[in-house]
Amino acid sequence: MAVAQVAPATRRGMPMLGVIAVALVVISLIVGIIVAITVPTEEHFSVGVANFTTPPFLSSIPWFTRAMLLGLVAFALALSFWLAMSRNHKLVPGKRQYFGEWAYSFVRDGIARDQIGRDFQKYLPYLIALITFVIINNLWGMFPLTLFPTMSHVGWAYSLAVISWLIYNVVGIRKHGFFGYVKHSVLPAGVPPALWVLVIPIEFISNILIRPVTLSLRLFGNMFAGHLLMLVFAGGGQFLLFETAPVINKFAGGFALIFSLAILALETFVQCVQAYIMTILSAQYIGSALAEEH
Amino acid sequence: MTPMELNGNIAIIGYGLGAIGPGIGIGLIFAAVIQGTARQPEARGAMMGTAWIGMALTEALAIIGIALAFVFANFG
Lengths: 294, 76
Prior knowledge:
With 294 residues, chain A is mainly α. In chain A, 74% of the residues lie in helices and 0% in strands.
């Protein structure tokens, strides 16, 4: 009996090793495919904005590009993930239900309840949909066959930010009335009237105009710059390693290719953090639009 | 042997200058978080939430910088 109990505990180390091995294989695959994609097909290859253009699959449907396909797949994945997690609940949770409850309560307790306050339950579906959609779209940048973060096309980030902007403004107007909300958002409590000329334009620009811009540009910039950095290391390393003669260049190219793995790991972290930040900032804007006057 | 183009632009130097401020700011934020965690380890969770928001707001300048660098690069 004691042996039977010990055995699973010692075997628990094995899945960890398996995960690491699979991760190594996947990472090497990714690097191989990055190199394969960045191998110049024409005479000159340059890393730049042009690498992010996605031509449409069929020339008759110009809007159906790779980014659109990835976005639609991410939508389907997010939907089926939460459908699978929310059905067939039991009193004693299994692994699937436990994971689903953990993910749900991470958003509910860590993001919605902390930032919005008492009436957080109403806005929870939007926040959960937002974080799931954004994190899947960001992680597309990591997988060998997709290898393209959808949000590195700025239009996707703009549209998400516009949805958040509409939600927090509409919610604030509903709560305080139109003029009440304008006063609430451009005039912090306790400012002496002599400073109103200075404070009102600053608060208006920062709360109404700049917020959606930074919300979208933050997501877009991180995805775009991170992917560009990976492309520079992989493409430049491949060029130095294979297409230049001096030996020192071969060392530098090999080092750059190995170092691109570190960039890849950093990117994974950044992609998760950006999805979290996008959601927590949306929640905070909703919370500040709902806040009572002090 | 095909030569590889490395297109450069002065706008990227502007981005580099613009990234100094957010760099210092993010350093200050996480220095404060580390100090706070050292003094009161059980408050780490609450501090990290605020720290991520602070980091997001601080790095907005750098992000706008990189977007504008690409905008101005096309004027060159």
